[in-house]
Amino acid sequence: MGTASVSWVDSAGANHLRVYATDGYTVNERCYNNGAWTTSIFSQAGSAISATSWTDSGGLHLRVYCTNQDATVEWCLDQGGDWYQGQYTTL
Predict the structure, then answer these.
(1) What is the pTM of this model?
(2) CATH number for the domain including 63?
(3) What is d(CA 61, CA 71) in angstroms, rounded to the nearest whole number?
């Protein structure tokens, strides 16, 4: 079992938090926005996780790294888009 989290403040000054948790098999995302927690559609295989986020002129960018069976997969979410598999590969 493990967790990773990221947070940011949007242009309106609102705080946002994402917590990624694994039960040892699946990574799920919980979202804190506007004072309430929700569960997102993000669900990927993984026994270990790490995550990062940043904002730039293109908006918010989230990256979640899920490790399962000795391979790590990068999952990406960019402002206004859907989750997609990134280019990161395990050496």
Answers:
(1) 0.93
(2) 2.40.128.190
(3) 23
